[in-house]
Fold sn-glycerol-3-phosphate transport system permease protein ugpA.
Amino acid sequence: MLEKKTNKAWLYLLPAIIVLIIFTIYPIINTFIISFDYKYNADQAAFGFDWGLKSYQSLMRGSFVSALWNTVLIVVISVPLSTFVALLVAIALNSIKPFQKIFQTIFFTPYVTNTIAIGMVFALMFSSTDGIINNIFGISKDWIGLNSSYISKMFVLQLYILWNGLAFKVLILLGGLQSINKQYYDAAKIDGTSKGRIFRKITIPLLSPTLSYIITTSLIGAFKTYDVVISLFDAKGQRDMRTVVGFVYDTINGGSPYSVGAAGAIILFVIILLVTGVNQYINKKAVHY
């Protein structure tokens, strides 16, 4: 009986497994092989049999390092900051009753809005000539122009990522907060427990599975950042803010050896794999199910 159920389970999973192999596992393996063939011909999908580490060596001599630095900076700043802000917003929304649904809708709006369109609006807001931000504060700062500083452009980029990613995180965290049994809070109030202690000892531990999911997906998403950079900076022809994904895309479409782009993709894949693995290891000790 058990064997029949197992066979049925594999039968139901088979379509998904086939799709996973064709569109995920095979491309990863193929990209890994291509990254070692420096003369791979992408137009003819033919190997040049120039095997070695030339592609990886080219990465270290090119603009990949700066792209990797931009990506790491986005991950290190945006993930903890956006998670913390989203948690505060979710707690605030969960504590109010009047107009709660309206505020939820307002905060969820960015999630259903085109990312490129939002980026273009942000670019206009931070324009040095007639931008809303400059008009509000009465200044004439070049925030994201060709002559603006790296810190200024990174600030706008992080602000955009924070605002754009807030909607999904708030929605998930709000659902997690509403699923916590109210009896825990009632018992804590009877014992005269302070709000800070309730937050640390009840809310955070019981919300830890949701926070784990948010952090894991945020890490992966931050490492793959691409469209927000394109919408803010690429229209101005800037390359100093490129991420690893942008570097890979420009490399495989810009006449450079295809294998170099493949090597960049593999390095990004390995980094994401390692960071996600470490995060999951930490979660096993910190998450309370």
